[in-house]
C-alpha cells in the first residue's frame, strides 16, 4: 500500500474558486473545495498552492476568501508546476511520494506526472471525493507540523 499523503498541492484557479485570479475573473470559493480543505486539514494533511500568475494577487485572493491560513506554502509564478512542487517539497521537508497535486488541466497534470512520477495527480473535478480515497487516510505524526513559511505557526495573516 502506498503511504498516506502528507501534503495536497492545489492549483487555485478553477479548483478552489471559479475563474482565474490573474485576469480578474476569480469568483467565489467552491463549496466542495472548502469542505475538502477542512476535512483533509483535520486529518493532518498539509495544503500548499502551486499556481500560474501573480503571487500577490493569488495571496490576496486566498486572504480575501479567508483560507490563506490553510496553506503552508504558496508557489505562484510562470514556471513549470513540477518546479513549484519540488520547491514546496523542500520547503515543507516532505518526500515527493507523500505529495498529491490537484489541477483542472490535463496538460499540467501530465507535466507533473512525467517529471515527478512519485507525485499523485488528481483532476479538479474530483475534489469532492478526495477525502474518500485511501491516499487521504489520517496522517500519523510523530513530530510537530512544520512552521508555515508565510508566518509563525498557524498565526492568521492579517
UniProtKB/TrEMBL annotation:
Superkingdom classification of source: Bacteria
InterPro entries referenced in this protein's UniProt entry, alphabetically: HAD-like_sf (IPR036412), HAD_sf (IPR023214)
Annotated protein name in UniProt: FkbH-like protein
Amino acid at each position: 500500500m502506498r503511504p498516506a499523503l502528507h501534503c495536497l498541492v492545489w492549483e487555485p484557479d478553477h479548483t478552489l474558486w471559479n475563474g482565474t485570479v490573474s485576469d480578474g475573473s476569480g469568483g467565489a470559493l467552491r463549496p466542495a473545495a472548502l469542505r475538502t480543505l477542512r476535512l483533509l486539514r483535520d486529518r493532518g494533511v498539509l495544503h500548499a498552492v502551486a499556481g500560474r500568475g501573480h503571487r500577490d494577487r493569488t495571496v490576496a485572493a486566498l486572504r480575501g476568501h479567508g483560507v490563506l491560513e490553510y496553506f503552508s506554502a504558496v508557489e505562484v509564478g510562470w514556471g513549470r508546476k513540477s518546479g513549484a512542487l519540488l520547491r514546496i517539497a523542500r520547503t515543507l521537508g516532505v518526500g515527493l511520494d507523500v505529495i498529491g497535486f490537484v489541477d483542472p488541466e490535463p496538460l499540467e497534470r501530465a507535466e507533473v506526472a512525467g517529471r515527478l512520477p512519485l507525485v499523485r495527480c488528481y483532476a479538479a473535478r474530483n475534489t469532492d471525493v478526495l477525502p474518500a480515497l485511501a491516499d487521504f487516510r489520517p496522517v500519523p505524526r510523530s513530530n510537530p507540523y512544520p512552521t508555515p513559511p508565510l508566518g509563525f505557526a498557524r498565526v492568521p495573516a492579517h
